[in-house]
Amino acid sequence: MGYIPQHALDNLKKYSYKGVDKSVLSKYVLNPFWNQLVRVWPKSVAPNTITLTGLSLVFINFLTMLVCDPAYLTPKEGAAGPPQWLYFTWAAGLFMYQSLDAIDGKQARRTGMAGPLGEMFDHGCDAINTTLEVILAAYALNLGRSWWTVASQIATLANFYLTTWEEFYTGQLFLGVFSGPVEGILMIVGIYVISGLYGTQVWDTGILTVLRIDRWESIAKILPDMALNEVFMVFGGFGLAFNIITSYTNVYRARQKSGQSPFTPLLHLLPFPTAVALQLLWLSAPSFDNSAILHSSLFVPFLCAWGLQFAHQVGRMILAHVTSTPLPWWDWMWLCNLVGALDANAPQFFGRSPIIQSTPIGRGIFVYLLLAASLATYGRFCSLVISDITNYLGIACFTVRKRDENGVWREAGAIDHPKSS
């Protein structure tokens, strides 16, 4: 069975992308650069190829972290981390990802390939990038396996969920004066550069020490000398609060303008905290010897599985947007997380030891099976959705081609802008 109901396929032809970007940096600095960059790409290159190229750079960054520091997957005392120059490659890779992610829409308009498939593909890649960058940024900030990294994962995914939810109810993607895809990514690029210059240990330095305020005893007694990485996390918390207010304000106005209830959309925020609660219940289980997943080699696979499940969740939300169908409430992968959480908390809930995760080996097998199931589920979603959209609209995913009225494949531009003979 596909993900798009038969009656919703016709809505694909009615979809048109709408977006608002209020970023000053984007308007006056980045957009002129992007306009020049898109011209480097031939019109024979499909927009989705550009998007996938950008995501590939992030995958390379992630793989270099694992290759250069295998101890991050298999913890060892005193293990040496990667060379500092590696962080410069992460900065370059992320910056190019942002640039390619920004020009795929421009390429779609150049080639006559703009449509719902590009929207789905772009957001799907963004969803995958979100978790990978959380892991990489936490590594560069010297947070490692900690609750700060978990908090960063929650805040980052929450921002993405809010944006998707807002786009569904307002009909347009809204990027404010400070947004994750623009300023947020550039901040992470800056983190990588600083880590490359001074090492990750610099983020453990107190902010009062960096600002040289610690010399003033009267101020030092009042203000805590929080580490720079912790300050960055607090800043992210305030950013999330601001985005919650902004997103709901936009939804509230849109619903009032259309004469609909502005409070009903709040119910569709519930799936996200539900999914997060299951993950936290599992991670915080005391039966794991003080959160063994959090402090073991399973932490990265666990976060990756979480990220893939989230990508599936928001992917279905975006699909509902482009097909004008109701937002989904349920994801069957929650059952896997519920089993893992209940099993881990069996001593507290049922007065018995865990059945599946009673040993480190059993725990590891379960987490990796969860990762495989999450990857298979999201892969199936992508495959079926791409197949449904390309077949119905008569377009290709990675080539600039469309089927004409006779069913013959031709270059998209030749159909959209026919030339006189």
Automatic annotation (TrEMBL):
Q: What is its EC number?
A: 2.7.8.2
Q: Where does the UniProt entry say this protein principally localizes? A: membrane
Tell me the domain of life: Eukaryota
Which pathway, per its entry? Answer: Phospholipid metabolism; phosphatidylcholine biosynthesis; phosphatidylcholine from phosphocholine: step 2/2
Please give the cofactor(s) recorded in the UniProt entry for this protein.
Mg(2+)
Q: Its Gene Ontology molecular function terms?
A: diacylglycerol cholinephosphotransferase activity
Q: Where in the cell is it found?
A: Endomembrane system
Q: Which GO terms describe its cellular component?
A: endomembrane system; membrane
User: What keywords is this UniProt entry annotated with?
Assistant: Membrane, Transferase, Transmembrane, Transmembrane helix
| PROSITE patterns, A to Z | CDP_ALCOHOL_P_TRANSF
Pfam families per the record? CDP-OH_P_transf
Q: Which reaction does it catalyse?
A: CDP-N,N-dimethylethanolamine + a 1,2-diacyl-sn-glycerol = a 1,2-diacyl-sn-glycero-3-phospho-N,N-dimethylethanolamine + CMP + H(+)
Q: How does it sit in the membrane?
A: Multi-pass membrane protein
Q: Give the transmembrane region(s).
A: 49-73, 85-103, 173-194, 231-251, 263-285, 291-311
Which PANTHER family does the protein's record reference?
A: BB IN A BOXCAR, ISOFORM C (PTHR10414:SF37), ETHANOLAMINEPHOSPHOTRANSFERASE (PTHR10414)
What family does this chain come from, according to its entry? Belongs to the CDP-alcohol phosphatidyltransferase class-I family.
Protein name, entry field = diacylglycerol cholinephosphotransferase
Q: Which organism is this protein's natural source?
A: Rickenella mellea
